[in-house]
Amino acid sequence: RSDRDIRPGPHTVSVVAHRGASEDAPEHTLAAYRRAIEDGADALECDVRLTADGHLVCVHDRRIDRTSNGRGAVSGLELADLAALDFGSWKGQATDKEAPDRKSRDSTSVLTLERLLGLIADAGRRVELAVETKHPTRWAGQVEDRLIQLLRRYGLDAPPPGAPPPVRVMSFSARSLHRVRIAAPAVPTVYLMQFVLPRHRDGQLPPGVRIAGPSIRIVRNHPTYVARLQRAGHRVHVWTVDEPADVELCVRLGVDALITNRPKQVLSQLGRS
Ligand code: G3P
Ligand code: CA
């Protein structure tokens, strides 16, 4: 796309809730994602990992110790083990086991990707999803296979021609993104960057990648990189943008999406609430 199409503007920036509205509610729980939808986020971000029995769950760390009252690696636990735990009390939001209504018990339980897809399907408005594959190379394609299987089940792997894709897959691993493109070519892929490798300095990314995902640190240190990526044909989704000065910088540079732990505050800063 040409330089003329790259236009900054608060209303063109998509606001993506990072791990849900994770500043206000425990990350990666239904509570956090419900809050993000209520807040008006355009999209939800989640990390996915495989359990020992092959379920994709939304957990950031390799182990569950930080975000639950249990211990161990996700990959060594079955979904039933995880379902018995509380993923809310570390942030002061304990699951009320006595709660009569299932909704309140579920809101701080482990969240499967399938349940999150169900939440989005019931949102009553368009909410996009950005799924990040964590440590995918350890699983020889199983994470991507399972992910695509689920997206197919929900009809999200092949949007009608011309329709904006409802789901994108993000990863720091180019190999993981390649696997996704082979299995589901219509699903856009986001190449996440913590630093800029020499081969990507001119804005070129791994073949087939449509969206660049630089960290806010990259954008702060190399603001002209955004335009370089866009000139090379990529959209730019920046993470994790929580500070008002960073929001302002990203808008000024014309980034396409802001991934934030504070969707409500960012939407308010953008004049959208
Ligand atoms: O949205 C990308 C960002 O989430 C990558 O970092 O560690 O929060 O998964 P991390
Ligand atoms: Ca992530």
Write a concise keyword list for the protein shown above.
disordered N terminus, binds calcium ion, alpha/beta, 9 strands, 10 helices, 30% helix, TIM Barrel, 16% strand, binds SN-glycerol-3-phosphate, GP_PDE_dom, globular, Lycerophosphoryl diester phosphodiesterase, 273 residues, phosphoric diester hydrolase activity
Topology (elements, then pairings):
Elements: E1 14-18, H1 30-39, E2 43-50, E3 56-57, H2 79-83, H3 102-106, H4 113-121, E4 128-133, H5 142-153, E5 167-171, H6 174-183, E6 189-193, E7 211-214, H7 216-221, H8 224-231, E8 235-239, H9 244-253, E9 257-260, H10 263-269
Parallel strand pairs: 1-2, 1-9, 2-4, 4-5, 5-6, 6-7, 7-8, 8-9
Antiparallel strand pairs: 2-3
This protein binds SN-glycerol-3-phosphate and calcium ion.
The site of SN-glycerol-3-phosphate (G3P) has 10 residues, from strand 2.
Q: Short summary of the structure?
A:
By secondary structure, the protein is α/β, with parallel strands linked by helices.
Report on the structure:
Strand 8 (235-239), helix 9 (244-253) and strand 9 form a beta-alpha-beta unit. By secondary structure, this protein is α/β, with parallel strands linked by helices. An eight-stranded parallel barrel has the order 1-2-4-5-6-7-8-9, surrounded by six helices. It has ten helices and nine strands. It has helices spanning 30-39, 79-83, 102-106, 113-121, 142-153, 174-183, 216-221, 224-231, 244-253, 263-269; strands at 14-18, 43-50, 56-57, 128-133, 167-171, 189-193, 211-214, 235-239, 257-260. It is 30% helix and 16% strand. It has a single domain (3-269), classed as Phosphatidylinositol (PI) phosphodiesterase (TIM Barrel, Alpha-Beta Barrel). It binds SN-glycerol-3-phosphate (G3P) and calcium ion. Residues 18, 45, 47, 60, 132, 170, 192, 213, 239, 259 line the site of SN-glycerol-3-phosphate.
